[in-house]
Design a protein that fits this description.
The chain is 28% helix and 24% strand. Bound molecules: beta-D-glucopyranose. The site of beta-D-glucopyranose has 11 residues, from α7.
Length: 819
């Protein structure tokens, strides 16, 4: 056992006595949904474990710090009071390599035992499966890291008289708790009638507190089980690291909007906002009422409850058995993606004031603010923020209901917007450290980080555990973070991992030759080694035109788009590597990447770009990435861009882009002189389009453009994916017109989007030198621009026909828009 750890030098991992989870291995990801009966928890779900331990101090304490972590997720209480406000500690990380422990200053909560106050303090810990052994991810399998819970606790006490003591809690006792099961995906079942005062007293106050009877293994708690000593166990400690950054918290409590009774007597509560979190209920009741709370993001066409997330273990269903009297409760070891809650078993008639929706997120300080003359865009901007909140729970996730997984591609697409809306540096840097930890020796970065074991089955099916565009997150996100903050450290700490990914892509491009290689002429054969055209790739994922074909599945859009997309992202990664190596003064590397990029670019043009500027693959995303990544000869750019506009026009003025191109689409159009088309797409209310979601009542960003069909049909998809929220960036860069031209906003060009049809825009972004605000409005044909720009920034304002160097922190400029 490694006891070299500075904090847990004297304590041991301890296991409560428990029935280990049975690994659950599914073959099908979307088995038909079955609501199990109440006995379910005896079969495949385990109770949260309650651990209690007296904490005796008999002289005045200067400082007491409690250190804790778990295999599972935990909450802690001292003398009935919650310690800290972190939810789901120790959070989600690649546990084998990095498991965070938390430290809590418990000095104010400690009681000193003396003749007048004989009882020691009581430390209570509740621990549940979480990501360690609960059901998670796409397949809903459990036991991704282990099949049993374990805890690690140590308290360091500095006394006022100068003495120092370490308490290791080896005399702790445990018992299955009144939380009959608690699972991140399934939900939580709390029987408060079994242990009304457990927080303050442990399961059995007298037994737990008075030294003797606490030690009595035969003392039965109210749940009918025994207090038993925990088992010391030899588990690794060399993966322990102190908590990095803020943990998950309840960041807001919303008062729901509406409550209606259904014909079957149940109630449907509308929170008014799609969120990630849980419901807090308050009521006065007799013991033993069973209240069931089922969560969903959407009601069906008739306004009735609908389970719109398919799959095993995706119930999002909490059960609460009341105790006697006034009580309030929310779950602690699960969270749901929901706007609506179906409530059954409520004693009497509920009222709105008895409910609060607790919004969970990692508290990232909001730094981006945007407001304009079109209420629909303002709503879209808010929806993006809500989707970000729901998908920054410990790690950047794809969605808060179906998978809660760290899909790398989603984070890559959204990262620029995340940097603009919030101070995301610490959060994303922590997750990038997980990407580095999960990177394989061959340089590949798994499609999901932390890499849950179950995705290996998916990887085996598709033949790869990574994908171009997804693994590229390890290059693109550090670059975006660096460009936003100017902080070179971000590139330094990721450089080795970025290089390893680049060489993975390079070797796969070089060694993977297409099946028809032997039929190619020698020129064409030569360039195949510079195209990443063989491995599995998700491609322009969820391409709308493919997805609307009858019977289409998401993999169809991968099949259609993978080859060109993978080659384009490969080119982009090598191009970025050249820039990164330049910043880090790795000249030799920069030269290498420069040469390689030239070759990839030449190969791409020869293979995919026709002499008239059209592409061999006719889908919008192909045009977008080819233009954005400069993979079209300069002299053909205008023609290529025109063809992109034609494709858009032929598609009823609607976008037809998937995950790998949607975040670049509007930029490319504006950069190639087609801002009018970009605006058409932004303001499009037909499907696919962002305002289609708004006009269909969205309060977050959907995973698929037609989650609600134009016929009103409700799709079984996620209504809370931040990926398509990537358009948020454009609100700042194009509509407000704040364009950073050098890393960390050293140089900025303000080019107000007065051609957008909007009549005013006001936006603020945070630069390393302080907030930068641009507010413009058009009044009677005059454009008036007010700017507040930190003085360290070299800023220029572009107005029609005029360039102004902004010399003062605050300036106002005018220009007539009438010729
Ligand atoms: C996720 C996506 C992810 C994709 C892979 C989905 O199940 O929800 O957002 O990127 O799989 O293509």
């Amino acid at each position: 056992m490694n006891k070299n750890h500075a904090i847990f030098s004297t304590s041991f991992w301890m296991e409560p006595v428990q029935v280990p989870e049975k690994p659950d291995i599914s073959d099908s990801y979307f088995e038909p949904y079955v609501i199990d009966d109440d006995d379910r928890f005896y079969q495949d779900l385990r109770p949260a474990q309650l651990v209690c331990c007296p904490l005796t101090v008999s002289k005045p304490v200067k400082k007491a710090v409690l250190y804790a972590t778990a295999h599972g997720i935990y909450t802690l209480y001292l003398n009935g009071q919650r310690i800290g406000n972190q939810e789901f500690a120790p959070e989600f990380s690649p546990y084998q390599k990095c498991l965070m422990y938390q430290s809590y200053d418990i000095t104010p909560l400690l009681k000193i035992s003396n003749p007048a106050n004989a009882a020691p303090s009581l430390l209570t810990m509740v621990v549940a499966g979480g990501w360690w052994c609960g059901h998670v991810g796409l397949s809903g399998d459990n036991c991704q890291y282990g099949d049993r819970l374990a805890i690690l606790l140590e308290c360091h006490i500095e006394y006022e008289d100068g003495d120092f003591e370490i308490k290791d809690f080896s005399e702790a006792k445990s018992s299955p708790s009144h939380i009959r099961y608690a699972d991140l995906s399934v939900g939580e079942y709390c029987d408060a009638s079994a242990a009304p005062d457990w927080r303050r007293d442990g399961l059995n106050r007298n037994d737990a507190r008075s030294g003797d009877s606490f030690g009595d293994d035969n003392a039965r708690n109210d749940a009918g089980t025994h207090w038993l000593p925990l088992k010391k166990i030899d588990l690794p400690m060399d993966n322990l690291v102190p908590q990095i950054g803020d943990g998950v918290q309840i960041i807001k409590r919303l008062t729901p909007h509406a409550l209606k009774q259904m014909p079957d007597g149940s109630w449907i509560l509308d929170v008014g906002q799609n969120i990630a979190g849980y419901l807090e209920i308050s009521l006065d009741a007799k013991a033993g009422c069973k209240i069931t709370l089922e969560h969903t993001e959407m009601l069906d066409e008739k306004g009735e409850f609908l389970r719109c997330i398919k799959g095993r273990h995706k119930e999002q269903r909490d059960v609460y058995i009341t105790c006697d009297g006034q009580q309030s409760w929310h779950p602690s070891f699960t969270y749901h993606g929901f706007r609506y809650v179906k409530i059954t078993g409520w004693p009497g008639v509920p009222s709105l004031s008895q409910f609060h929706a607790c919004v969970l997120s990692t508290p990232l300080r909001r730094t981006g603010f945007f407001e304009c003359s079109d209420a629909r865009l303002n709503k879209l901007h808010e929806n993006i923020w809500w989707s970000q909140l729901a998908n920054t729970i410990s790690i950047p996730t794809d969605c808060p209901q179906r998978e809660k997984a760290g899909w790398t591609g989603d984070a890559m697409i959204y990262s620029e917007t995340m940097c603009l809306l919030s101070d995301a540096e610490a959060f994303l840097r922590r997750w990038l450290s997980y990407c580095r930890a999960e990177q394989c020796p061959d340089g590949s970065v798994p499609m999901v980080v932390p890499y849950l074991r179950q995705y290996e089955k998916f990887a085996a099916k598709v033949g790869s555990h990574t994908s171009a565009g997804w693994g590229d997150a390890i290059v693109i996100i550090p670059w975006n973070l660096y460009f936003h903050s100017g902080n070179v450290e971000i590139l330094e700490e990721n450089y080795a991992a970025m290089k390893a990914w680049a060489s993975y892509a390079e070797s796969h491009a070089r060694n993977g030759l297409p099946a028809n290689f032997s039929e190619m002429d020698s020129e064409r054969q030569k360039r195949q080694t510079y195209l990443w055209n063989t491995d599995f790739c998700f491609g322009d994922w969820l391409l709308p035109s493919v997805m609307k074909q009858p019977g289409a599945v998401p993999m169809d859009s991968a099949a259609k788009t993978a080859e060109l997309m993978a080659s384009a992202y490969y080119a982009n990664t090598i191009w970025l590597m050249e820039k990164v190596a330049g910043v880090l003064k790795e000249q030799e590397d920069a030269n290498y990447y420069h040469d390689l990029h030239e070759k990839i670019r030449a190969a791409f043009m020869a293979e995919y770009v026709r002499p008239d500027g059209t592409l061999t693959h006719e889908f919008q995303g192909a045009y977008v990435v080819s233009l954005k990544f400069h993979l079209v000869p300069r002299k053909l750019r205008a023609q290529t861009a025109r063809r992109l506009c034609e494709l858009i026009a032929q598609n009823d003025d609607c976008l037809d882009t998937g995950f790998l191109s949607v975040h670049l689409l509007l930029d490319v159009l504006a950069e190639t002189g087609h801002a009018d088309v970009a605006y058409k797409l932004l303001f499009q209310t037909k499907c696919p389009g962002w305002l289609y979601m708004i006009e269909h009542g969205a309060t977050t960003i959907w995973e698929k453009w037609d989650c609600i069909g134009s016929d009103g049909s409700i799709g079984a998809y996620s209504y809370n994916h931040y990926a398509f929220g990537c358009v948020g960036k454009w609100f700042y860069t194009r509509l407000a017109g704040i364009v950073a031209q050098a890393p960390g906003y050293r140089k900025v060009r303000i080019r107000p989007g007065h051609d957008s049809g909007l009549t005013h825009v006001r936006a603020t972004v945070e630069t390393p030198y302080g907030p930068l605000t641009v507010a413009w409005e058009i009044l009677s044909g005059t454009l008036r621009v007010e700017t507040v720009i930190p003085k360290e920034i070299d800023a220029r304002l572009s107005l029609p026909g005029r360039e102004i160097k902004l010399a003062n922190e605050k300036s106002q400029n005018w220009c007539s828009l009438i010729d």
